[in-house]
């Protein structure tokens, strides 16, 4: 745990410029009386502290700032620690357990909210013109019907696609990267595997994928939360075996 905190401090030092840029003040503040010029060491010291503070705020950690500063000072000066290694280890373990419990509770609440929002959306969307619903719950709308063959589960396909959340946030797009993607039909989320086997080469569909046919409770990456319903535009460019 101590090594993890040391690593956090090191990473924060590398990102100091990002925080200063984000907190940049309007030019009119330059009119205030100039403070005494700080040395490089003073500026870096303040910057590291600023980064640590922003990280603690972002992680919503309820810490005693005075004792945090005292701990840093004692470590640098080599002073005798005010608690024993055994006490520190026990406190760190208890704190870590509390943080994990909070994170799990937060994820569960977000998952329940996302699931309810997805079910409501899909119930309404199923009534929309041109939307078809399969037995699995997958919904799709044909934008353009191709004339080529349909791939099998064991095939590899080349596609262009754009994935969005229900609020329209784009979380992935081969269009934006300017290059199509090739992958096995059975190597993607269940909603895609099902849809691709119904599409003819040259087709472009819009998919509305329930969470249980997407990433489920685990979510994916930083943008796709637990139990989120996803929307994709998928263009099947070809079969490559």
Task: Tell me about this structure.
The structure is a single chain. The chain has 241 residues and is of the alpha+beta class. It has 2 domains: 2-82, no CATH class; 117-239, Chitinase A, domain 3 (Roll). 43% of the residues lie in helices and 17% in strands. The protein has helices spanning 2-14, 16-22, 40-58, 65-77, 85-125, 174-177, 190-196; strands spanning 131-133, 139-144, 156-164, 170-173, 181-184, 204-209, 230-239. Strands 1, 2, 3, 4, 5, 6 and 7 form a 7-stranded antiparallel sheet that branches. A hairpin with a 5-residue loop joins β3 (156-164) and β4 (170-173).
Main traits of this protein?
alpha+beta; Chitinase A, domain 3; 2 domains; seven-stranded antiparallel sheet; 7 helices; elongated; disordered N terminus
- Cα-atom Rg, whole angstroms? 26 Å
CATH C-level label of the largest domain:
Alpha Beta
Distance between the termini: 48 Å
- Order of SSEs: HHHHHEEEEHEHEE
Q: Describe the global form.
A: elongated
Please give the number of β-strands.
7
User: Residue ranges: pLDDT <50 for 5 or more in a row?
Assistant: 1-27
Q: Biggest β-sheet, characterized?
A: 7 strands, antiparallel
Q: Output the number of helix runs.
A: 7
What proportion strand? Answer: 15-25%
